[in-house]
Amino acid sequence: MRARLLAAAAAALCIAPAGAVPEGAASVTAAAVCDFRAVGALHPDKGLRNKDTLAAKLCSPRILPHDYAIARGAIDLDPEGYSGYFFVNARTRHIDEQLERAAKDGARQVVVLGAGFDSRAYRFHRRYPKLRFFEVDFPATSSAKQAAVKRVLGRLPAHVRYVPIDFDKQTLETALPAASYDPRQRSFFIIEGVLMYVNEAGNRATLDFIGKHSPAGSRAVYDYVLRAVIDGKFDGLFAAYRTAKAVAGLGEPFVTGWTPSEAADFARASGLEVENDLDSAELTRRYLTSSSGKVDGRTTNWQRIIDATVR
User: Is 309 exposed, middle or buried (0-12, 13-18, 19+ CB in 10 A)?
Assistant: First the structure.
C-alpha cells in the first residue's frame, strides 16, 4: 500500500488532464498549493516547518497525502516534479513574516488577491484582532473556500470579506470598495501565485489599484516567474518545463513573466518601490536550510518573491 501511494503521488504532477478548467470549477493549482502547505506544516524540523496548520483541514489531499513521511517519500523520488513544494514552503513562511511586520507597523487591512485556500485570516486573527481581511478570488474558487471555512470553523468570520472577481475581466476599484475596503487605512496586499496566470493589463490594474488606493507605507508581497519561462527558454531553469506544461494542461497556463529589472520598473510605474526581490539562493538560505546547515531540498530558480512599499 505504501509503495502504491508513493508511486501515485510521484506521478501526480506529470499526469495533468488536458483542457481548460471547467466553467464553475475551483482552481486546481490552489488545491495543489494547499497540499504543499499542509505537508510543509508537518515537517519534523521546527526550523523548516511552516505554520499553516489549517491547510490540511481546508483542502482534501489532491497531489500529496497529508502524511509527512509518505509525502516526503514521493517528493524525494521525484525532486524535479515536486520542486514546487519547497518554493511554496519558503513562500508561505516569508509571507507570514511580512504580514506580521505589516501588522506591527500599523496595517489595519489585509487584502489577499487570489486567496485560494489561504488561511492567514483565521490563523492570525487572535494575535491581531483589529486586522480586517479581504479574500479576493475567482467566484468558483471563492465559493469552494467559503464552504471549506464553514465546514472547519462552523461559520464565516465577521472580520473576513469574500470578494469574488475575475482578474482579467473586472477591476478592484469596484469590487473592493463594495466589500467595505477603506483606501485611507494602511494595508498589506498578498498576491501569492497569481500574477503569472494573469495578463499584463490585469497585472497593471492590480498594482495600480495598490498604488492609488492605499496610503503611503502600505505594503505588498507577490511572486513572479522569469520572462524566460513565458518565452519557452527553459535551459538552466530547474523544473520549469515540466511545471509550465503541467499548469497549461490543467487549463491554468503561465502568461506573464518579467526579468528582475522589468519587475522593478513595472512596480515603480504603479507607485510601488521594490524593497526586496528574493531569488532561489536567498529563499534557500532563509527558509530551506536547517540549523545544521543542511538544505531541505532544491527549489526552482525561476520563481522569485518581491516585497514592495507604496511610495
Answer: middle
* Nearest one of 186, 37, 202 to 136, comparing CA atoms: 202
- Let me know if residue 279 belongs to a domain: yes
Report pTM. 0.92
Instruction: Report yes or no on 91 lying in a domain.
Output: yes
Q: For residue 24, tell me if it sits in a domain.
A: no
* Count of positions (residues) in the chain: 311
Does residue 88 lie in a domain region?
Answer: yes
Q: Output the pLDDT for position 2.
A: 35
Full residue range of the structural domain in which residue 229 is found: 84-310
Count of C-beta atoms within a 10 Å radius of residue 277: 17
Q: How far is CA 21 from the centre of its chain?
A: 19
Q: In this model, does residue 285 exceed pLDDT 60?
A: yes
Residue 190 belongs to domain with CATH number: 3.40.50.150
d(CA 211, CA 292): 42
Element (H, E) at 245: helix 240-249
Q: Name the domain count of the chain.
A: 1
Residue 66 has which C-alpha cell? 497529508
List strands edge to edge, sheet with 160-164: 160-164, 132-137, 109-113, 187-191, 219-225, 303-310, 272-278
According to DSSP, residue 125 is labeled: T
> What mean pLDDT is reported for the chain?
91
